[in-house]
Amino acid sequence: MKRSLFGGRNKLTDDIIGHLTRYYTAAIRRSRGSIKDLRKDILATFFHCSSSDEHPRHHFCPTGSNSWCFYNQARAVCGPPNTHEKMRVYFKLNQDERSLLFSIYKDLSTDELLHKCMASRTQNPNESLHSKLWNCLPKIKFFCLRTCQYSVTNTVLQHNYGYSTASMISDLGLQEGSHHTTKFFEEKDKKRKREASRTPRKKIRVKEDQDPSYASGAY
Q: Locations of Basic residues compositional bias (predicted)?
Protein backbone atom coordinates (compact mmCIF):
# COMPACT_ATOMS: atom_id res chain seq x y z
CA MET A 1 0.00 0.00 0.00
CA LYS A 2 1.37 3.39 -1.00
CA ARG A 3 1.92 5.77 1.90
CA SER A 4 3.20 9.33 2.02
CA LEU A 5 6.57 10.19 3.54
CA PHE A 6 5.17 11.98 6.61
CA GLY A 7 2.01 9.96 7.17
CA GLY A 8 0.03 9.96 10.40
CA ARG A 9 -2.49 12.09 12.26
CA ASN A 10 -2.19 15.78 11.34
CA LYS A 11 0.67 14.87 9.05
CA LEU A 12 1.15 14.88 5.29
CA THR A 13 -1.21 12.04 4.41
CA ASP A 14 -2.09 10.96 0.88
CA ASP A 15 -5.45 12.73 1.18
CA ILE A 16 -3.79 16.03 2.10
CA ILE A 17 -1.27 15.63 -0.73
CA GLY A 18 -4.24 15.29 -3.08
CA HIS A 19 -5.73 18.54 -1.77
CA LEU A 20 -2.41 20.37 -2.11
CA THR A 21 -2.10 19.14 -5.68
CA ARG A 22 -5.56 20.47 -6.53
CA TYR A 23 -4.78 23.82 -4.88
CA TYR A 24 -1.59 24.08 -6.92
CA THR A 25 -3.54 23.37 -10.11
CA ALA A 26 -6.25 25.87 -9.17
CA ALA A 27 -3.65 28.59 -8.59
CA ILE A 28 -2.29 28.05 -12.10
CA ARG A 29 -5.72 28.01 -13.71
CA ARG A 30 -6.96 31.23 -12.13
CA SER A 31 -3.73 33.15 -12.70
CA ARG A 32 -3.87 35.81 -15.42
CA GLY A 33 -1.05 38.06 -14.28
CA SER A 34 2.72 37.84 -14.08
CA ILE A 35 5.00 35.01 -13.06
CA LYS A 36 5.57 36.80 -9.77
CA ASP A 37 1.83 36.83 -9.01
CA LEU A 38 1.50 33.19 -10.03
CA ARG A 39 4.34 32.18 -7.71
CA LYS A 40 2.72 34.15 -4.90
CA ASP A 41 -0.59 32.31 -5.42
CA ILE A 42 1.17 28.94 -5.37
CA LEU A 43 3.19 29.67 -2.24
CA ALA A 44 0.05 31.03 -0.57
CA THR A 45 -1.45 27.54 -0.67
CA PHE A 46 1.61 26.09 1.06
CA PHE A 47 1.87 28.67 3.83
CA HIS A 48 -1.89 28.76 4.37
CA CYS A 49 -2.21 25.00 4.80
CA SER A 50 0.92 24.70 6.96
CA SER A 51 -0.17 27.47 9.34
CA SER A 52 -1.15 26.91 12.94
CA ASP A 53 -2.63 28.99 15.74
CA GLU A 54 0.87 29.49 17.14
CA HIS A 55 2.44 30.30 13.76
CA PRO A 56 -0.05 31.80 11.28
CA ARG A 57 1.50 32.22 7.83
CA HIS A 58 -1.06 34.03 5.69
CA HIS A 59 1.09 36.85 4.31
CA PHE A 60 0.70 35.54 0.74
CA CYS A 61 -3.04 34.94 1.02
CA PRO A 62 -5.43 37.51 -0.50
CA THR A 63 -6.74 40.10 1.93
CA GLY A 64 -10.17 41.62 2.41
CA SER A 65 -13.57 40.41 3.53
CA ASN A 66 -14.03 38.40 0.31
CA SER A 67 -10.75 36.51 0.66
CA TRP A 68 -10.81 32.71 0.49
CA CYS A 69 -8.42 32.77 3.46
CA PHE A 70 -10.49 32.55 6.65
CA TYR A 71 -7.71 34.18 8.68
CA ASN A 72 -7.35 37.31 6.54
CA GLN A 73 -11.11 37.43 6.10
CA ALA A 74 -11.60 37.57 9.87
CA ARG A 75 -8.92 40.24 10.23
CA ALA A 76 -10.63 42.36 7.57
CA VAL A 77 -13.84 42.49 9.62
CA CYS A 78 -11.94 42.85 12.91
CA GLY A 79 -13.19 39.53 14.20
CA PRO A 80 -11.41 36.59 15.84
CA PRO A 81 -10.38 33.91 13.32
CA ASN A 82 -11.34 30.29 13.82
CA THR A 83 -8.78 27.80 14.94
CA HIS A 84 -6.54 26.40 12.23
CA GLU A 85 -7.40 22.86 13.25
CA LYS A 86 -10.83 23.33 11.65
CA MET A 87 -9.31 23.95 8.23
CA ARG A 88 -10.16 21.41 5.57
CA VAL A 89 -6.46 20.85 4.95
CA TYR A 90 -4.46 20.96 8.16
CA PHE A 91 -1.14 19.35 8.96
CA LYS A 92 1.72 19.85 11.38
CA LEU A 93 5.31 19.30 10.32
CA ASN A 94 8.52 19.97 12.16
CA GLN A 95 11.07 22.40 10.77
CA ASP A 96 13.02 19.80 8.79
CA GLU A 97 9.87 18.34 7.27
CA ARG A 98 8.54 21.78 6.34
CA SER A 99 11.87 22.69 4.74
CA LEU A 100 11.80 19.54 2.65
CA LEU A 101 8.24 20.19 1.50
CA PHE A 102 9.00 23.85 0.80
CA SER A 103 11.94 22.84 -1.39
CA ILE A 104 9.47 20.86 -3.53
CA TYR A 105 7.27 23.94 -3.87
CA LYS A 106 10.30 25.98 -4.88
CA ASP A 107 11.12 23.45 -7.60
CA LEU A 108 7.51 23.66 -8.80
CA SER A 109 7.53 27.46 -8.95
CA THR A 110 10.67 28.26 -10.91
CA ASP A 111 10.52 30.96 -13.60
CA GLU A 112 11.12 28.43 -16.37
CA LEU A 113 8.27 26.17 -15.26
CA LEU A 114 5.78 28.94 -14.49
CA HIS A 115 6.45 30.59 -17.84
CA LYS A 116 5.03 27.47 -19.50
CA CYS A 117 1.94 27.65 -17.29
CA MET A 118 1.03 31.29 -17.95
CA ALA A 119 -1.49 30.37 -20.65
CA SER A 120 -3.46 28.38 -18.03
CA ARG A 121 -4.13 25.63 -20.53
CA THR A 122 -4.27 21.86 -20.22
CA GLN A 123 -3.50 18.95 -22.49
CA ASN A 124 -7.19 18.39 -23.28
CA PRO A 125 -7.11 20.49 -26.50
CA ASN A 126 -4.24 18.35 -27.78
CA GLU A 127 -6.10 15.15 -26.93
CA SER A 128 -9.19 16.46 -28.73
CA LEU A 129 -7.15 17.24 -31.83
CA HIS A 130 -5.52 13.81 -31.74
CA SER A 131 -8.87 12.05 -31.48
CA LYS A 132 -10.12 13.87 -34.59
CA LEU A 133 -6.97 12.93 -36.46
CA TRP A 134 -7.17 9.24 -35.51
CA ASN A 135 -10.78 9.17 -36.74
CA CYS A 136 -9.53 10.23 -40.17
CA LEU A 137 -6.39 8.10 -40.08
CA PRO A 138 -6.94 4.93 -38.03
CA LYS A 139 -3.67 3.58 -36.71
CA ILE A 140 -4.37 0.06 -37.94
CA LYS A 141 -4.49 1.13 -41.60
CA PHE A 142 -1.77 2.30 -43.97
CA PHE A 143 -1.99 5.72 -45.66
CA CYS A 144 0.38 7.33 -48.12
CA LEU A 145 2.25 10.52 -47.25
CA ARG A 146 0.01 12.77 -49.35
CA THR A 147 -3.14 11.45 -47.68
CA CYS A 148 -1.60 11.96 -44.24
CA GLN A 149 -0.56 15.52 -45.06
CA TYR A 150 -4.01 16.40 -46.37
CA SER A 151 -5.78 14.80 -43.39
CA VAL A 152 -3.57 16.57 -40.85
CA THR A 153 -4.05 19.94 -42.56
CA ASN A 154 -7.80 19.49 -42.83
CA THR A 155 -8.12 18.30 -39.23
CA VAL A 156 -6.16 21.27 -37.87
CA LEU A 157 -8.29 23.72 -39.87
CA GLN A 158 -11.54 22.14 -38.72
CA HIS A 159 -10.34 21.99 -35.12
CA ASN A 160 -9.37 25.68 -35.02
CA TYR A 161 -11.91 27.31 -37.34
CA GLY A 162 -14.83 24.92 -37.67
CA TYR A 163 -16.17 22.98 -40.63
CA SER A 164 -17.81 25.95 -42.38
CA THR A 165 -14.80 28.27 -42.31
CA ALA A 166 -12.27 25.51 -42.98
CA SER A 167 -14.13 24.14 -45.99
CA MET A 168 -11.68 23.50 -48.84
CA ILE A 169 -14.30 23.14 -51.58
CA SER A 170 -13.39 26.39 -53.33
CA ASP A 171 -9.64 25.73 -52.91
CA LEU A 172 -10.07 22.46 -54.78
CA GLY A 173 -11.55 24.31 -57.76
CA LEU A 174 -15.09 23.12 -57.06
CA GLN A 175 -18.21 25.22 -56.92
CA GLU A 176 -19.51 26.36 -53.58
CA GLY A 177 -21.72 23.81 -51.95
CA SER A 178 -25.48 23.86 -52.11
CA HIS A 179 -27.80 24.80 -49.29
CA HIS A 180 -27.66 21.21 -48.04
CA THR A 181 -23.86 21.28 -47.89
CA THR A 182 -23.86 24.56 -45.98
CA LYS A 183 -26.49 23.20 -43.62
CA PHE A 184 -24.41 20.07 -43.08
CA PHE A 185 -21.32 22.10 -42.11
CA GLU A 186 -23.37 24.27 -39.74
CA GLU A 187 -24.79 21.22 -38.00
CA LYS A 188 -21.30 19.74 -37.65
CA ASP A 189 -20.09 22.98 -36.05
CA LYS A 190 -23.01 23.03 -33.62
CA LYS A 191 -22.31 19.45 -32.62
CA ARG A 192 -18.62 20.25 -32.17
CA LYS A 193 -19.44 23.17 -29.83
CA ARG A 194 -21.90 21.08 -27.82
CA GLU A 195 -19.34 18.35 -27.28
CA ALA A 196 -16.68 20.89 -26.30
CA SER A 197 -18.95 22.44 -23.66
CA ARG A 198 -19.91 19.15 -22.05
CA THR A 199 -18.40 18.10 -18.74
CA PRO A 200 -15.75 15.49 -19.53
CA ARG A 201 -16.58 12.00 -18.37
CA LYS A 202 -14.20 9.85 -16.42
CA LYS A 203 -11.85 8.07 -18.76
CA ILE A 204 -12.22 4.32 -19.13
CA ARG A 205 -9.05 2.46 -19.91
CA VAL A 206 -9.39 0.55 -23.15
CA LYS A 207 -7.83 -2.88 -23.33
CA GLU A 208 -6.03 -4.13 -26.40
CA ASP A 209 -8.57 -6.87 -27.08
CA GLN A 210 -11.38 -4.29 -27.11
CA ASP A 211 -9.73 -1.93 -29.57
CA PRO A 212 -7.29 -3.35 -32.14
CA SER A 213 -5.83 0.11 -32.74
CA TYR A 214 -4.70 0.30 -29.12
CA ALA A 215 -1.33 -1.13 -28.24
CA SER A 216 0.87 0.42 -25.62
CA GLY A 217 4.10 1.70 -27.16
CA ALA A 218 3.24 0.36 -30.60
CA TYR A 219 2.84 3.73 -32.31
A: 190-205
Pair 21, 49: CB distance under 8 Å: no
pLDDT digits 0-9 by tens, 48-70: 888 888 888 888 888 888 888 88
Strands, E assignment, 32-148: none
What is the biggest distance separating any 2 CA atoms in the chain, rounded to whole angstroms?
77
Task: Report the alpha-carbon distance of residue 128 to residue 125 in Å, rounded.
Answer: 5
Q: Is the pTM for the entire model greater than 0.90? A: no
Burial string for 130-154 (b: 16+ CB within 10 Å, else e) reads eebbeeeeeeeeeeeeeeeeebeeb
**Rounded to whole angstroms, what are the CA distances from 157 to 28, 118, 148, 184, 195?**
29, 25, 14, 17, 18
